[in-house]
Structure formats: structure tokens, C-alpha cells
From TrEMBL:
Name of the protein: Nuclear envelope membrane protein
Transmembrane segments: 41-62, 119-141, 182-212
Subcellular location: Nucleus inner membrane
Family that this chain belongs to: Belongs to the nurim family.
PANTHER family membership: NURIM
InterPro entries: Nurim-like
Assigned GO CC terms: nuclear inner membrane
Membrane topology: Multi-pass membrane protein
């Protein structure tokens, strides 16, 4: 599971961070007015929409309680998290492999990052920083448990499932939000020097999906506030 997640996320990072070159820009066309050109532009959009929708459905569907009960019924509840990550990685790789671009590409904006060194470094630095934030957030929400490694380790050592050792408030929070960094992922989705309609479609759908799927509550915010105060108090005792 770890290898599949690492590989698929790496492919996604390269896909999102690769800048558009002036040579590619020269092949672009203005917004089409001819019906045939409009059809040629819309086909990749609908085709890509299918793969994006399949990823979203898989990513949400396998979290459903009925799926978890099915895993428990067949004795695979231990591997539920690993299977979820493998399926997510596979669907993400399928999306990237089958991604299509229109022959008459239209871009909402374009900035030449090849000749503008400052812009290139800004884009690359922002993407790297955003992924570091995402990775750091993953560590904070228990990365080994998130990708399914801790479940196997605990079972081998005859321990209870790792989630049972966490507080009820934290368990409730994880049910609503397991992915870290809405801001970091939004940055890598939207920050590009050449925003095509296909890329915009991906960014809009995934941003909305993150916004509505990660439905944290006031109780979650209060829990984090209490934990922050607790950590500060512990740090003050250590430094005295």
C-alpha cells in the first residue's frame, strides 16, 4: 500500500507541477467558434470528467459503512485501509494514464515560465512547499495508520486495532477528515503557468470535493484548540 501511494502521488505531483512551455503554447488556439472545433474541445473534457468522477466515487464509496461491514464479514477488516489506499492509487494512476488534451487547446491564462526564471522558481518552490505541508500533515494524522501499516503491525503483535487507542473525539474527527492540508492540495491544483480547460475541470472538481467532503465541525475545532493548549502547557513545563 505504501509503495502504491508513494508512486501514484509522485506521478500526480509531476503531472501538476510540469510547466507549459512556449512551444506548447504556440499550438494553442483561441476559444473555438466553429461547431466542429467546439466538439473537438468538449470531447476531452467529458472524457476526463468520467475518470475524475470515477476517482471521486471510488474515494468516497470505499469509505461507506456498508463496505466496512463487508470487509468485516469476510475477515478482511485488518486490510481495509490498505485495500482502500491501493484502490485509490490505482484509480489515480488510471486517471493520469488516460488523461486527454484537446487538439485545439484553449488556456484561461498563460505565463512564460521558461524565460522568466523568477516565475519558474516561484512555481516549483510553491509546489514543493505545498507537498511538504501535505506530507507533514499526513505525519500529524498518524501516517502509518493512514496507509494501513500500523494495523498489520498491531495485529502481528496481538494488539487491539490502532484506532481503538485514540480518543473518541479524535476518532470522530478522523471519520470526517482523514486527508491533511486543503490549502496545500489547492495550491498544487491551481498553481500553473498555463491553465487549460481540462486542468481547470480537475481543479474545480477536486477543490469542491475536498471542501464538501472534509466537513469538520465546531467540536473538531474545539478539540484541536484544547490539544494545542495542552501541548503548549507541556512544552512550558519541559522548558522550565
Amino acid at each position: 500500500a505504501f509503495i502504491s501511494v508513494f508512486y501514484s502521488v509522485s506521478k500526480l505531483a509531476l503531472f501538476l507541477a510540469t510547466p507549459i512551455t512556449p512551444q506548447e503554447r504556440q499550438k494553442d488556439a483561441g476559444f473555438p467558434t466553429d461547431p466542429a472545433a467546439v466538439k473537438a474541445m468538449l470531447f476531452p473534457l467529458f472524457y476526463n470528467l468520467i475518470w475524475v468522477a470515477l476517482f471521486v466515487l471510488q474515494h468516497s464509496g470505499l469509505r461507506a459503512p456498508i463496505v466496512k461491514r463487508f470487509y468485516q464479514a469476510i475477515g478482511l477488516d485488518l486490510a481495509e485501509r490498505s485495500l482502500y489506499n491501493i484502490a485509490s492509487s490505482f484509480s489515480l494512476l488510471l486517471l493520469l494514464k488516460n488523461w486527454k488534451t484537446a487538439p485545439n487547446q484553449y488556456r484561461l491564462w498563460f505565463f512564460d515560465a521558461e524565460t522568466n526564471e523568477a516565475l519558474w522558481w516561484f512555481m516549483m518552490g510553491s509546489h514543493v512547499l505545498a507537498w511538504i505541508i501535505v506530507y507533514g500533515g499526513s505525519l500529524m494524522v498518524d501516517l502509518p495508520e493512514l496507509i494501513g501499516l500500523k494495523q498489520t503491525f498491531y495485529d502481528v503483535n496481538d494488539l487491539a486495532p490502532p484506532m481503538s487507542y485514540k480518543s473518541r473525539d479524535l476518532q470522530d474527527y478522523y471519520k470526517r477528515c482523514r486527508h491533511p492540508s486543503f490549502v496545500g492540495l489547492s495550491v498544487v491544483l491551481w498553481l500553473t503557468n498555463g491553465m487549460s480547460l481540462e486542468r481547470c475541470l480537475l481543479a474545480v472538481i477536486w477543490t469542491l470535493y475536498m471542501y464538501f467532503a472534509w466537513n469538520t465541525t465546531r467540536e473538531d475545532l474545539e478539540y484541536h484548540r484544547q490539544q494545542l493548549q495542552r501541548k503548549r502547557a507541556e512544552l512550558m513545563r519541559v522548558t522550565k
